[in-house]
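Structure ticket #2291
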Amino acid sequence: MTGYNSNGDVATSNANGHQNGHNGSSNNNGNRQLTADYTAQENHTNNINSQEKIQCYLSTEELRALRVMNEDTYPYEVIQEIADFIVKGSNMRPKIGIICGSGLGSLADIIQDAKVFEYEKIPNFPVSTVEGHAGKLVVGNLEGAVVMAMQGRFHFYEGYPLAKCSMPVRVMKLCGVEYLFATNAAGGINPKYSVGDIMLMHDHVNMLGFAGNSPLQGPNDPRFGPRFPALVNSYNKELINKALEIGKQMGIEANMHVGVYSCLGGPTYETIAELKALRMMGVDAVGMSTVHEVITARHCDMKVFAFSLITNKCATEYSDKKDDEANHDEVMAVAKNRQKACCELVARLIRQIQASS
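Resolution: structure written out below.
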């Protein structure tokens, strides 16, 4: 999207889409801001051609996010350029990709000899805007394997299309990744689940897909995968069984489950009626991510292991109690308390994969 940049210039955009750059301004507290003038035509009784100019202030990060957000597609060549940038910058080719869910960014902190890329410094990469998502890509060694971990993912509710939310999975593929580990914080619908439990995903219900929204919409590039990929075995059974065995060794088997996850669009938490409907469909946990990443990973023939950390129990009965309402602070607190167990589970599983290869 021409006109928007992050070098101190600002864009003027009018109703016809024409943009012109001009200098930024500073606010009273000295923090430099960038401005964008939007000229909108309105119909008035006395002057049909009158115009109103609205000035808004955008930070450098917001302008960059706006530019990237308005890029509709990521052709193979662009994704290859991103992958080449990461491989060259890290001097490593990762075998395992990890997507860290809300509050689970510490998974990336245990990577050794790490090379860290901030999202904003990666060419053509989106920016994560959610608390608990650091916005960094970390490449390094973990249990003898070269891994790359996303400290922060991209969500549909941030305004990104699903293809862009899951684009980093394709970057991982072109970097050399064979396995995708996807983690998330989720609400537990299954009444047998408790806060702090870990649910290994063996299937999902794609509610966004029910509405006709898919990360694979549009022309298919066969260099990534087939036009009509099958998803009946999306989650690798061998990895699930290994994780269950690891859970027994760690002494947390009582807090581990195998279940079905569903992704809703967010950013609102679900209503009682929606949660009841999901439970009737066989869903055990619900969140706002992961499914489109898994679809993209399977499309390009990656092996997938995914789990949800149950950070709250979903209310399925009507109540006036505020305690029954989900909130992000609760999600972050539970994730912080359980991050050690989650990190150990991931590390031990990677160790087994590396030992068997």
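Closing remark: The longest strand covers residues 303-313.
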